Amino acid sequence: MITHSAHEMAAAMAAGEITSEKLTQQHFDRIAEVDAEVHAFLYLDHEGALAQARTVDEARGRGEKVGPLAGVPLALKDIIVQKGIPTTAGSKILEGWRPPYDATIVTKMKNAGIVILGKTNCDEFAMGSSTENSAYGPTHNPWDLSCIPGGSGGGSSASLAAFEAPLAIGTDTGGSIRQPAAVTGTVGVKPTYGGVSRYGLIAFSSSLDQAGPCARTVLDAALLHEVIAGHDPMDATSADVSVPQVVNAARSGEVKGIKIGVVKELNGDGYQAGVRSRFEESLELLANAGAEIVEVSCPNFEYALAAYYLIAPSECSSNLARFDAMRYGMRKGDDDGVSAELVMNITREVGFGREVKRRIILGTYALSSGYYDAYYGSAQKVRTLIMQDFNNAFAKADVLVSPTAPTTAFKIGEKADDPLAMYLNDIATIPVNMAGIAGMSLPSGLAPEDGLPTGFQIMAPAMQDQRLYSVGAALEAALLSKWGAPLLSRIPALGGAK
Amino acid sequence: MTDQELAHLSTEMDVILNAVARVQEVATTDIPPTSHPLPLRNVTRPDVVVPSLTPEQALSGAPAKEDGRFRVPQILGEEA
């Protein structure tokens, strides 16, 4: 049953064809079979997951009404806290820490009967585009184990593609849900900023971070989106508005009369030929389904990457100050008479990895007196310009589209020593975070030149997340009828399975 | 950081700073800065006690603790 979609699994459980306990065990068996190769998981909670599964089975047995995803297993990115379960954010500085509380989205998923299998690998504090910055070693792309699975949420995307879980949670600060989805042939959604609670999401860049659903189908992502969305008094930046009707939109998949704006600046030089040809093909399918395709221009997007690499590091240099070796996490060098300040320094030297140090220093520099106006201040102005570009574009189109990432998955190690080349992976996803709007990536096929998945990005105005699902479902259906089977049916076998 | 890390990073920093300095090309004085995507003012809640972590839970991750408090290295001058 592990290759089915989450809603098919839920339907099978509702029909009494399989129990959640059995389904959960099948996923643990699959993980045992392939995760030595993929390394998607940092921690597995066999006991907790199976207990939750039995609870759902019992409720169902008593004839109680359960949620649409009750009993379905899920993989949780290790940057979201779960009570009593080791949570590291991919960092040594949090090794062994067991949070004393649940993130709001974890509480919501538990209440919905979702079974959390374990915690997935990610770049340290979600800083990266390849999952190579995890202190616990890289995750491998199930399409080609020598390639990256995207990042920072590479563990979540790889677990879906490897059929280790049908659902996952990611977080997206500059593309960390969408780019991993693109390079693994899965679906990932960054909801509107404020649409999903950040309480219990270990902060990287607070004005950009957003948790969201990852899945193998658009409808599955919508079902999970509806579970985790909604206002949360525990998050001061949570929007107190009604949740967009994403499930209805995903079920109808109607695009007749919808205006789709192709962002001119996000599809040209620097985009791999196969990525572009699959993108064009998807546009054609959407036009055939009744959408109107127009071209829009967002001239300031070319500054988005530079502004992002000032704003995100600035916020992270402040956020990561909480790792002070005093209240939780690692403490090193605490010998008698050593000052607290020195203990803090020694702990951070050992506890933080290279990319994290790089960004803390860059952010501290950008915020320092004398440089503030030139760097952080200018970046904030670019943010205004990007929002204006989006406003102008959304006046001409209901949604905007682009390739999700400029290339397919690259080799592990290929860009590890070139931070600027690595940052370019997020060139098409970053503007969405800067403006706080909604974005989705779904598979658009395989690039002919390397046989690896390509992603199609859809962007919608703030709190219009349902538009992502209408267009996404329409494209997914058109591609499915063209291919005859889901893209992931073409993934090479792992672990000698099947 | 180690000397090796510092040497590596100082070269990288120059390259990264040159790249991100591009923001200055368009950031003219007439553009207002945006710090946050939502137009939020101060968010407050009624001042009532709600359940929260117990002292034991709050201390559960502490590297060192004593008498229900965090135990920290010395924070004042070396000469005690």
Features:
heterodimer, A: 498 residues, alpha/beta, Amidase signature (AS) enzymes, eleven-stranded mixed β-sheet, 11 strands, B: 80 residues, mainly alpha, 2 helices, 2 strands, 29% helix
- Rounded to an integer, what's the Rg of chain A over CA atoms? 21 Å
Structural class of chain A: alpha/beta
The coarse silhouette of chain B is flat
Average pLDDT confidence of chain A is 96
- The dominant shape of chain A is globular
Tell me what portion of residues of chain B adopts beta-strand conformation.
5-15%
Low-confidence stretches of chain A: none
Short description:
The complex is a heterodimer of chains A (498) and B (80). Chain A is an alpha/beta fold and 498 residues long.
Give structural notes.
The complex is a heterodimer of chains A (498) and B (80). Chain A is 39% helix and 12% strand. With 498 residues, chain A is an alpha/beta fold. Chain A has one domain: Amidase signature (AS) enzymes, CATH 3.90.1300. Chain A has an eleven-stranded mixed sheet with strand order 1-3-2-4-6-5-10-11-9-7-8, with helices on both faces. The two termini of chain A are 13 Å apart. With 80 residues, chain B is mainly alpha-helical. Chain B has a domain of 29 residues. In chain B, β1 and β2 form a beta hairpin. Chain B is flat.
Which helices and strands, and how do they pair?
The complex is a heterodimer of chains A (498) and B (80).
Chain A: H1 6-14, H2 20-38, E1 41-44, H3 46-61, E2 73-77, H4 104-111, E3 115-120, H5 154-161, E4 167-171, H6 178-184, E5 187-190, E6 211-215, H7 218-228, H8 246-252, E7 259-263, H9 273-288, E8 292-296, H10 304-319, H11 340-351, H12 354-367, H13 373-394, E9 399-403, H14 419-423, H15 430-435, E10 438-446, E11 453-460, H16 465-483
Parallel strand pairs in A: 2-3, 2-4, 7-8, 7-9
Antiparallel strand pairs in A: 1-3, 4-6, 5-6, 5-10, 9-11, 10-11
Chain B: H1 3-20, H2 55-59, E1 65-66, E2 69-70
Antiparallel strand pairs in B: 1-2
